[in-house]
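Handout, page 2. Input:
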Amino acid sequence: MFVTSKRLHLWESALLIAVAVTLTAGAWASESESALAARVLRLHVVANSDTEEDQALKLSVRDAVLARAAPWLEGASSRAEAEAALLPHLDELAQTATDVLAARGCGDPVAVSVEDAWFPTKVYDGFSLPAGRYRALRVVIGEGAGRNWWCVVFPPLCLGSVTEEAAETALEGGLSEDQASLITGRDGGYVLKFKIVEWWGQLMNWLGL
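Output:
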């Protein structure tokens, strides 16, 4: 009876430790994700459909929107400044996208907005971003029923081609050393931390929180 009771206490202690570790990791992940999302403005381009033609048009629209937005974003030192710089020009960005489509014989309408959106984990050339809710410049073509294209408007990480360039751009955009290391993987120890942030973000999205 004493042995059984002792084993029960050990099991309860192990369970409490596991719960404490999970809550601690979750709190860290939630704080890290929120801090990262607060500094990043994503780009979300949604194709009309998954046909080869519509997917190609999506990429052409992406390139045109990024090129058109670049001058307005010069000098922005925070996500808030980047968003403020873009908001007066949403109609112009929509027109830019519409012109690209029209030049290719497509009459689909384009809707452009800045809003919060859920993003899955994405791996880019030189950096990655964990799943979570981010502020985003959203461009929806036609029915918006096709595959998405995600990247980052601010800091301009879409233009980074190697890890060091992405890290430098992230730091210039106001991310901390830890956040830059987290998304670029410069420190191998951040691989596990990234997975924790990713897992926590996916769990919160699944729970609808």
